Amino acid sequence: MVFTELPYDAAQKAGFARAMFDHIENRTTDLADEVLEVDPRVYSDPELARRERAEIFGHVPILAAHGSELPNPQDFLTVRLPNNEVVLVRQPDGEIRGFVNVCRHRGARLVMDDAGSRRFFSCGYHGWTFAGDGKLRAIAQEQTFGSVDKSCLNLLEVPVEQRHGFVWVVDSAAGDVKIDVAEWLGPELDDALTAFELDAYTCYTTGNFDEDINWKVLMDAFLDGYHITATHANTVAPYFYNNVQDWRQMGRHGRVVSARKSIDKVRDRDPSEVDINRHITIAHFIMPNMSILRQPDHLEVLNFVPAPGKAVGTRMQMRILIREPAVTDEQKARWDKNWNILMAVLRDEDLVVNRALQQAVSNTDLRPLLFGRNEVANQHFHHWLRRALDDPRHWG
Ligand code: FES
Ligand SMILES: [Fe+2]
């Protein structure tokens, strides 16, 4: 493994080691103040789903892509977001702009490909043509169409910003919405992501998984360090401690440090003398729907995109980001193996449990769901969502 050093000073690294040692020794984990009750209908209520799209996803930056997925001018990607399908287009100056993927004539889906490189986008229905900057260039047989102001028929645009190597979008073309990723992350998380040098990474693989599961069920599954033993007995449980988490709230967002079982080899040592990097994983949870999990030699990025127009449906996206582009067969084999392990864990374990959970919470007779004091990151997520919907001006 090629380890990337942890970007923390010696005192912080010793702090992580001490926190993990103490929790394992005492069979503890970081705790919330009390058990939280959550109405199971948060996973199925259509009205709540509508409000989440309008009041949260229509206002805050969410992950749309990694910059390395569209490296050159004229490269494009189509990305399904909660409110709109968006076409991201790399401009000649390196900026990325995003357009709602709908032809301004009669509403055909303009770009049918997932990705590619094009100077113009020509609609397959009647042949109207738009440039890479969204401008309407040509109306087919314009002399017969009648008089319209072409300058008012450009593609609808959503705010886009590149930061930390990612492409972020606010999923609204309302025009009065701005994007400010640093503000959204807040200074502590923004500094933490800068220290990770995220823009030095490249995206090795992306996978999309369309599931009949509410997006919060899936976000909950990845905030949760309490299910490893029961759900993942046959895969990762031998390598990770269950229910051992160091939680830090970072404004709206949060960070969880977890221990690998390999930490047992160094637990009798002085925390300040241990190379803790190889024995922990660090996950940053970015509200509302993203997680960046730092393994010692790569990053796993997950995001959960509510399917348009329904409560029970999510496109889950998974990415592996690596430091050095994989060129040789040997390098590719190594990352393919990582990907296949992740897929097995996800497909055969997490998704099986969570599909069934989604069906179970559709029963008629239910009582509140319980999030224990140990499920502190999940509690933060549900509290934050409630606050954001109660007062969208502050978003927690
Ligand atoms: S709908 Fe696109 S050209 Fe007619
Ligand atoms: Fe899991």
For the record, what CATH class of the largest domain applies? Alpha Beta
Give the domain tally: 2
Helix share of residues? 25-40%
Shape: globular
Q: Order of strands side by side in the largest beta sheet?
A: 13-19-18-17-16-15-14
Identify low-pLDDT runs: none
**In the CATH scheme, what's the topology name of the largest domain?**
Naphthalene 1,2-dioxygenase Alpha Subunit, Chain A, domain 1
CATH superfamily of the largest domain: Naphthalene 1,2-dioxygenase Alpha Subunit, Chain A, domain 1
**Share of residues in strands:** 25-35%
Order of helices and strands: HEHEEEEEEEEHEEEHEHHEEEEEEHEH
**Largest sheet at a glance?**
7 strands, antiparallel
* Class derived from helix and strand content: alpha+beta
What is the alpha-carbon Rg in Å? 22 Å
CATH architecture of the largest domain: Alpha-Beta Complex
Distance between the termini: 39 Å
How many helical elements? 8
The ligands bound in this entry are: FE2/S2 (inorganic) cluster, fe (ii) ion
> What is the number of E strands?
20
> Mean pLDDT, rounded to whole units?
95
Keywords: 2Fe-2S, Iron, Iron-sulfur, Metal-binding, Oxidoreductase
Protein name: Rieske 2Fe-2S domain-containing protein
Cofactor: Fe cation
Pfam families: Rieske, Ring_hydroxyl_A
